[in-house]
Amino acid sequence: MTAHSDKERAAPNFKQGYGFHPLGAWADHGVDGTGEPLVVMLRPGNAGSNTAADHQQVLADALTQLPFQPGYRVGRKVLVRTDSGGGTHDFVRYCHQRRLQYSVGFTLTETTAAAVEKIPEHVWTPAYDATARSGTGRGWRS
User: Where are the domains of the chain?
Assistant: First the structure.
């Protein structure tokens, strides 16, 4: 997020710009999802994308905004979706320890794609497609 002046906590970023690198969480999944922001952490422009501590703090703060109080071990009531910025061992371990469901998106490298192609067809099972509004969409996972 670009800022054209020396605003509080603004900093240079890797794209030769100046501003902020916010991190947020929204309640947007499913038919009843409201899309409302739960938490936004305003970080300096030079904040790292893969900062697990920031991802953990935003997730913890977002969980406190839910209409139910899930406690530390949330269970299957919540699905955390993140892009590759949240794809760190520390953040995934944090989600696992809290018993959260999670989905991490990332760029599929040629090495990873080649490894996936070696997985036998018989071990793949149906999975939900998070983009399906009705929850009946299908994807595949191993």
Answer: 108-142
